[in-house]
Amino acid sequence: MNTLNKTLALIALASSSAAFAATDFDTLDVDGSGAISQSEASVDAELMSLFSELDTDGNGELSVEEFAKA
């Protein structure tokens, strides 16, 4: 059931045209891992276009500190 909730949250974010502008780190971190994966970031085209630049340590995820630079 938890996977269903995560999927529904991603769908809700994807359907919002202002998902990135109106969301905070915790909302995008759907799985609660403390980082935003590329999959989680993919709900927003603007965030995805900045992802490589923001991912300064190159680990494929955005930390709170990296996300704050957006």
Automatic annotation (TrEMBL):
GO terms for molecular function: calcium ion binding. It comes from the Bacteria. Residues 1-21 form the signal peptide. Pfam families: EF-hand_7 (PF13499). Residues 42-70 form the EF-hand domain. The keyword Signal applies. This is Calmodulin. It comes from Pseudoalteromonas porphyrae.
